[in-house]
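Hey, can you fold this one?
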Amino acid sequence: MKMKVNMLKFVRKYSLYFMVLGVLFLGACGDDDAPEEENELEVFTNVTLIFTNNADATDVVRARAEDPDGVGVQELQVLDDITLTAGATYTLTYEILNALDPTDVEDIGAEIVDEDHEHQFFFSFTNDVFTNPAGDGNFDNASDAINYNDMDENNNPVGLSTTWTAGSATTGASFRARLQHQPNVKTSTSGVNDGDTDFDLTFVLNIQ
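Sure. Predicted structure:
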């Protein structure tokens, strides 16, 4: 009888300890199993460069790039050349889409506007193919001339709108546009290699 009483006391004494340990263990497992919060990845399936003649709004040049396999291994594929009129001045804008779901196409350009302090376009082109900006772009030096029309909240350039004056007639020149994602990196001096590349497209440029 005495042994039974002692055993009962033992069970009562330590059962509470086991319950507390069990709660702590389950709590720890719950923390470990909780998924880490991740930033949603931007997906680019369709990018269109749109050059609009400042003197003639009916003169619009579109150059497209599309990703044939969505989130697959292939990158954006350039589909069109850019053909501009010699001496004409154009404003370059973009249509940037995620069309993985045709019934729910996302306007990534609008997201870039919302996060303009984290994004910047950089450009490289055949030397002096434009009279303004002159030179060959700002890949090699971020401070080289590009006519940015839009600035972020910190007064740093974005590049969703830029201005270009075509030079003399030529064929087979190149025009390259790269969008950099630069969260916590973008400054007045950050360059083409700072941050991560969202897309990098090179087009054949003709001027006639």
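The radius of gyration is 28 Å. Let me know if you want another pass with a different chain boundary.
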